[in-house]
Design goal:
Elements: E1 5-10, H1 15-30, E2 38-41, E3 46-51, H2 56-69, E4 76-78
Antiparallel strand pairs: 1-3, 1-4, 2-3
């Protein structure tokens, strides 16, 4: 059984930050970690983005590095 990766992303962000998040999701797809990312509301302040990644550990490493590089630690949380 494959465990999905879930990202909690703040809703109230500026355009530059939104662009960084879109780039992260686009890179996950173009790097071949996933084909589709599901987006749902968690509450009034956050979205949940979930997807199945293969290979799972490498995708998590990629996400963690991107979050640090793009300075999104206060915006994106891996659940």
């Amino acid at each position: 059984m494959t465990t999905p990766i879930r990202l909690r992303i703040k809703k109230d962000i500026d355009a530059a930050t939104e662009k960084k998040i879109l780039k992260l999701k686009g890179n996950l797809i173009t790097e071949g970690f996933t084909e589709i990312i599901h987006i749902s509301d968690e509450d009034e302040e956050h979205y949940i983005n979930s997807f199945v990644a293969d290979p799972h550990p490498e995708a998590l490493d990629f996400i963690a590095a991107y979050i640090i590089e793009a300075k999104l630690q206060d915006i994106v949380l891996v659940l």
